[in-house]
């Protein structure tokens, strides 16, 4: 069952959907809750850019923003701007328009008071304004050619893909909106003032999700920059800056897969001068790491361009390995088994890594798919422990027992 919220192409939204999204954004702005995203993006600077945390950090940033919009209108999801497409019909742009988030150039978005407007006569509502500074770009222009995007998507490892996408298509889309002085896209501190920032980044996130889907037999292994052995779990990403011939512009700082990402780090501040009033963790500190952002399905959203079959089907149970070793449990010790179809089962751990198992004639044996990171080290079959018609446990890669944990299950 797929209950996740689907993000769609802004060019395909109905008028009603466009209006709902726009109004939710305007309401957030009017509440005074939009500008904290502008500030946050200014402060995060290179803790969220120019390194492996770029994609995860922005994935979570977008999600928080989308969740706030959904508090205003639960039907809203973040649309994406497919910047490889012209989005023009009969010479009229379908996305750059006055009755949505404004055209090109420097624009003033305007609306009638929404917050506290109940019971106020239309004529008595105040007019709200929001100045957004874009370049006077060509409405017929294509910011990034599909062939350029494909050359990013074709890269097999995360450490090649992520910087290529960040500096290439992502950067080109920002440049298209105008990164010269006087425009919003000219600095980290102002980029988010243009609400199209979120649509641009939603597309970047979609490309990452598509890449993850495409490379699912590959992106979880160490070659893809997502460590999978305990040794690699502990390894810092900083080697990327030195060993990979300038793959990253500067040695990354706090870009480890398990680094805690500001501002979801429960800390007080990056600098002493930092204004903390806008921070999201004031009441409930979160400890966010890139790893927690890897599995977008677990974050409960999806994209209309990613086939449904990737999303999880009936859960066969959640299993926990209590006996792994004495170093304590990590997210690899919690596993959800779900049925993909009649013949296949998905093993998914809390670290966001999953692989496929194929059923055999013997119901105690499952063949492990080649997409399993342990396949090459000999993990070719898993053993299922049955208790009547219930699976009560499963033996993992080293015959270690994963006990049955929860029973929202039908086998
Ligand atoms: Cu950014």
How would you describe the overall organization of this protein?
This protein is of the alpha+beta class. Helix content is 25%, strand content 17%. The chain folds into two domains: 5-107 and 137-303, di-copper center containing domain from catechol oxidase (Orthogonal Bundle); 312-406, Lipocalin (Beta Barrel). The strands form four sheets. The chain has an eight-stranded antiparallel barrel. Strands 1-6 form a two-stranded parallel sheet. Helix 1 (15-31) crosses helix 3 and helix 4 (146-153) packs antiparallel against helix 5 (158-177). The longest helix is centred in the middle third of the chain and has 20 residues, at 158-177. It starts with a strand and ends in a 5-residue tail after the last strand. The structure holds copper (II) ion. Copper (II) ion binds at residues 41, 49, 58. Residues 41, 49, 58 line the site of copper (II) ion.
Layout of strands and helices, then pairs:
Elements: E1 5-7, H1 15-31, H2 35-44, H3 54-72, E2 88-89, E3 92-93, E4 106-112, E5 127-133, H4 146-153, H5 158-177, H6 196-214, H7 230-234, H8 239-243, E6 301-303, E7 315-320, E8 334-339, E9 344-349, E10 354-359, E11 365-368, E12 381-387, E13 390-395, E14 401-406
Parallel strand pairs: 1-6
Antiparallel strand pairs: 2-3, 4-5, 7-8, 7-14, 8-9, 9-10, 10-11, 11-12, 12-13, 13-14
The protein binds copper (II) ion.
């Amino acid at each position: 069952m797929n209950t996740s919220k689907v993000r769609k192409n802004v060019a395909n939204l109905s008028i009603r959907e466009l209006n709902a999204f726009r109004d939710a954004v305007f309401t957030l702005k009017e509440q005074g809750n939009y500008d904290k995203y502008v500030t946050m993006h200014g402060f995060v600077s290179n803790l969220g850019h120019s390194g492996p945390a770029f994609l995860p950090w922005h994935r979570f940033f977008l999600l928080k923003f989308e969740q706030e919009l959904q508090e205003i209108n639960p039907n809203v999801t973040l649309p994406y701007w497919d910047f490889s497409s012209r989005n023009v019909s009969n010479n009229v742009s379908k996305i750059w328009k006055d009755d949505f988030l404004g055209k090109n150039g420097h624009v003033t978005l305007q609306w009638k008071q929404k917050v506290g407007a109940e019971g106020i006569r239309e004529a008595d509502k105040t007019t709200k304004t929001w100045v957004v500074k874009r370049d006077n770009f060509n409405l017929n222009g294509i910011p990034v050619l599909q062939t350029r995007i494909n050359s990013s998507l074709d890269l097999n490892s995360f450490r090649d893909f992520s910087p290529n996408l960040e500096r290439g298509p992502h950067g080109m889309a920002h440049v298209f909106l105008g990164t010269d002085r006087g425009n919003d896209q000219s600095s980290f501190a102002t980029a988010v003032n243009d609400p199209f920032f979120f649509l641009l980044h939603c597309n970047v996130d979609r490309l990452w999700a598509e890449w993850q889907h495409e490379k699912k037999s590959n992106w979880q292994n160490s070659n893809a920059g997502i460590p999978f052995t305990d040794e690699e779990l502990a390894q810092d990403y900083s080697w990327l800056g030195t060993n990979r011939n300038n793959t990253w512009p500067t040695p990354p700082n706090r870009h480890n897969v398990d680094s805690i990402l500001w501002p979801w780090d429960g800390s007080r501040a990056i600098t002493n001068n930092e204004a903390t009033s806008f921070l999201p963790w004031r009441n409930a500190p979160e400890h966010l790491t890139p790893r927690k952002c890897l599995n977008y399905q677990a974050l409960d959203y999806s994209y209309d361009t990613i086939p449904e079959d990737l999303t999880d089907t009936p859960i066969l149970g959640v299993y926990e390995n209590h006996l792994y070793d004495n170093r304590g449990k990590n997210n690899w010790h919690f596993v959800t088994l779900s049925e993909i179809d009649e013949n296949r089962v998905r093993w998914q751990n809390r670290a966001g890594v999953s692989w496929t198992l194929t059923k055999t004639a013997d119901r105690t044996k499952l063949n492990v798919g080649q997409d399993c990171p342990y396949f090459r080290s000999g993990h070719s079959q898993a053993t299922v422990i049955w208790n009547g018609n219930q699976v009560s446990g499963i033996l993992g890669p080293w015959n270690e027992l994963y006990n049955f944990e929860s029973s929202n299950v039908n086998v």
